[in-house]
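Just wondering, can you check both lines?
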Amino acid sequence: MKFNEKAKIRLEHWIGHNEHHREDYVQFAEELENERKKASAEHIREMITLTDKTTACLKNALKALES
C-alpha cells in the first residue's frame, strides 16, 4: 500500500474517532448541566469547540492530501 493510501486511512479514522467522541462530549455536558454541574459542563463544551477545530484540521489535511 502506498503512503498516500495509508495516510488517507489514518486521517479518515481520526476524523471518525473525533466525531464519535464529540457526540459523547455533548451528551456528557448535558448530563452535567442536568446535575447542576455548570462549571464542569462549560469545560466539556470548551473541549467540544477544540475537538471541532481539531476535526477541521484533520479534514483540511485530508483535502490537501487528495489534491
In short: The chain has one domain: 3-66. The two ends are 19 Å apart (CA to CA). Helices lie at 3-34, 38-66.
